[in-house]
Amino acid sequence: MRILTAALMTETNTFSPMPTGWAAFEEFGIQRGREGLTPGVVTAPMLLWEELARAEGHEVVHSVATFAQPAGPTVRAVYEALRDEILRDAAEQGPFDAVLLLLHGAMVADGYDDCEGDLIGRLRDIVGPSVAIGAELDLHCHVSPAMARGADLLIAFKEYPHTDGLDRARELYRLVVDTAAGEVRPVLGLHDCGMVGLYFTQTPSMRAFVDGMSGLERQPNVLSVSLAHGFPWGDVPDNSAKVLVYTDGDAPAAAAHARRLGADFWALRDRVAFRGLGIDEALDRVASAPPGLVVLADTADNTGGGAPGDSTYVLARLLERGMGGACLGPLWDPVAVGFCHEAGVGGELDLRVGGKACSASGQPLDLRIKVRGLSQDLRTPSYSAEIVSLGAAAWIEIVGADIHVVLCARRMQGFSPMVFTELGLDIGALRIAVVKSYNHFYAAFAPISAEILHIAGPGAIMGDMAAIPFQKRSADYWPRVREPASI
Q: What whole-number distance in Å separates Cα of residue 144 and Cα of residue 29?
């Protein structure tokens, strides 16, 4: 059996002012199979597929593997160039028996609201109707009719934070290879829940729901079960939570399972929906929190959702309220990082920090700071334990305030306490740690936290799901309306 693999990933916040162009993909690397793949977050599933395939005597051909940090829509020429390179490999290096893809599911480009559906459909035209095509998706995906029609299997992460990427890759491999061999015949049951939101799988209600999906997969004839959460800040028609159930040739059973799970998820809506705190509300809660480190998630400035990562709202309130014993990061400011490296460790200077990317970033802050630590390449584990780079970085202390900030030259959310500790900052001696992230920080910070609180705005990522100013996505969704007509 011959298998083609490829990875083309970014999550698009259509409200973000930052275009996603060549530099965004090149920052994380554009790898090509003919040149050999090096291990990393994006290539890990592809290398796993190769390992599994070779153990069974199959041949693997790798095409493009690339990722861009979430931001605004991808530049049309960039998307088309990367897509067409994958299509050329499919046409010129075929024939193939199977195609395995690592996609996000919420990628939007200029002129393309559904990049994944476009890519899968064009691949289907090239490889033909008998070739098994499967895609692993981030659970914050928009499942479109084109995606469901073009692929034999769509399997999304079950966990948020996304700690199960390789588990889902292994599952996809087995089912796609078995489909290509004629051993199973996947049919899809798809249910639209009519909901727009974010759902943390570590909470009790979501944990039970995810465990229920896994339990259903152990029933005879059920091949795979996914909940596509959707990505709230993607203004596309298919933005909605959806349940996907694949059975082996039993379409009525697949549809019935999907409807039942969809109804179960709908019944949980008030318990699982994200509700954050205002900045002052969160800071007020610090006083009543148990002794130890209180972690505040600055969700509205999460680069993993397409925000710039340079907002100053929370930092400004910490200063205005005189709340020392605090750290904040990572804050994206390449200019300030450069000045700190020039000054060197121990240097003291007046520094303008943050508030540079757009109006949602707030006002820049003019601070007297001392450089406490520097790194030419700050590297930390991500939610999947793969190492990510924040580029050049600086730990600064605001003079007279006992507030510490980690500045970075590469846009990245805070996955791990190592974003602070790698520069020498002992966060265990502090009361407050503000992390620019939505939920991917949770697994690493929970063991060292007395309490974790989520702040909802202000910033580039709107926390009120009912108020997102959609133009292409219908307003018929919960929580904007209590009973959507679409469900």
A: 28
